[in-house]
Design brief:
The chain is an alpha+beta fold. The chain folds into two domains: 4-129, MutM-like, N-terminal (N-terminal domain of MutM-like DNA repair proteins, Alpha-Beta Barrel), CATH 3.20.190.10; 142-266, Helicase, Ruva Protein, domain 3, CATH 1.10.8. Helices cover 26% and strands 20% of the residues. The protein has seven helices and ten strands. The strands form three sheets. Strands 1-6-7-5 form a four-stranded antiparallel sheet. A four-stranded antiparallel sheet has the order 2-3-4-8, with helices on one face. It has a two-stranded antiparallel ribbon with strand order 9-10. Strand 9 (255-259) and strand 10 form a beta hairpin. The protein is elongated, with a radius of gyration of 20 Å. The two termini are 28 Å apart. The structure holds zinc ion. Residues 247, 249-250, 252, 267, 269-270 line the site of zinc ion.
C-alpha cells in the first residue's frame, strides 16, 4: 500500500499537465474507483477544465482544476499515476484518463481499491482541510504526539504508529523503520515509554518521514522500475520483507510477528522487550 513518500511521488507525475486543459475524460464507469462519485459526474465536471495545482498529504492527493473543481484521489493498494506523451488507447487497468493536447494523464489501478472524489466549490473539500497535521509540519509537536501515546497507553506502540489520525501517511514499513532506528520493541505499551524514549521516537518519526520523502519522492522523472531504488542498504527496509533477513547494524536474525493485524519485523538485539 502506498505510504507518505510513494503518494508524494505519484502526485508529481501529473505535474507536466498543470496549466493544460482537459480536452477529454475517459473512464471505465464500472470500476470501483467511482463508488463515491459516478464516472459521468466526474467527466461532466472536468471536461474543458484546466488543471491548476496538485497537493499531497498523508495518503491522500487533491487536484485543483479551474472553475472551482477539485478531484480527490486515493491510490488504494495498487494505484499509480502516470503521464504519457501519447496513449492511443486506454489500457486495461486505466480506469480514469485525462487527455490534454499533447499528453495523457492516467490513473492505473489493477485492484480498484483506489478512490476518486469530486468536489465543487471555491474552497477545498472539508475532508481535505480536516486531515490531521502532517508529520513534518510545525503542528506535529512532541506534546501532540505524547498526548496521543498516553490516550493509547495500553496499545502496542507499533499499532499506534499505524493510526492515521495522528501519524498520517505512516504505513507498515515506515513504522518498522522508525521503531528499529529508535531501538524500541514493537510490542512495548505506548504508555510505558520513558521521556528519553519519547524524545527519540519523536525525532525518528520525523527523520524516517523526511528520509523516505527524499529517497522515494526525490527520484522525480519517469516511473523507475523500482520506486525504492534510492533507499540505502543500511535501512531495515531491504531486510524486513521475508523470513531470513538480518539486521543491517549487527547481523542478528530479524524476528517477525503480526502486531495490530500487520506483520512487524524487528531486531531482537537492537530492540529489546
Ligand atoms: Zn540489530
Amino acid at each position: 500500500m502506498p505510504e507518505l513518500a510513494e503518494v508524494e511521488y505519484f502526485r508529481q507525475q501529473w505535474d507536466p499537465g498543470i496549466g493544460g486543459k482537459i480536452k477529454l475524460v475517459e473512464c471505465n464507469p464500472k470500476a470501483r474507483i467511482y463508488r463515491e462519485n459516478s464516472a459521468k459526474e466526474i467527466t461532466e465536471a472536468l471536461t474543458g477544465a484546466t488543471l491548476r495545482a496538485s497537493f499531497a498529504q498523508a495518503k491522500q492527493m487533491l487536484f485543483q482544476f479551474s472553475g472551482g473543481r477539485w478531484l480527490g484521489l486515493h491510490l488504494g493498494m495498487t494505484g499509480k499515476l502516470l503521464c504519457v506523451a501519447k496513449q492511443p488507447e486506454r489500457g486495461k487497468w486505466d480506469h480514469f484518463v485525462l487527455r490534454q493536447a499533447s499528453r495523457t494523464l492516467v490513473f492505473r489501478d489493477p485492484r480498484q481499491f483506489g478512490l476518486l472524489r469530486l468536489h465543487i466549490g471555491q474552497e477545498p473539500p472539508a475532508w481535505w482541510t480536516e486531515l490531521p497535521p502532517a508529520i513534518l509540519s510545525d503542528a506535529f509537536t512532541p506534546d501532540v504526539m505524547n498526548a496521543f501515546l498516553q490516550r493509547r497507553a495500553k496499545s502496542p506502540l507499533k499499532a499506534v504508529l499505524l493510526m492515521q489520525e495522528r501519524f498520517p501517511g505512516i504505513g507498515n514499513w515506515m513504522a518498522d523503520e522508525i521503531l528499529w532506528r529508535a531501538q524500541l520493541h514493537p510490542e512495548i505499551k505506548s504508555g510505558k515509554l520513558t521521556s528519553e524514549q519519547k524524545e527519540t521516537l519523536y525525532r525518528k518519526v520525523r527523520e524516517v518521514s523526511a528520509d523516505a520523502l527524499c529517497a522515494i519522492a526525490g527520484v522525480g522523472g519517469e516511473l523507475p522500475a523500482d520506486l525504492n531504488v534510492n533507499i540505502p542498504e543500511s535501512w531495515l527496509f531491504w531486510h524486513r520483507w521475508r523470513d531470513g533477513g538480518h539486521c543491517p547494524k549487527d547481523d542478528e536474525a530479524l524476528q517477525r510477528k503480526a502486531i495490530g493485524g500487520r506483520t512487524s519485523c524487528w531486531c531482537p538485539r537492537c530492540q529489546r522487550p
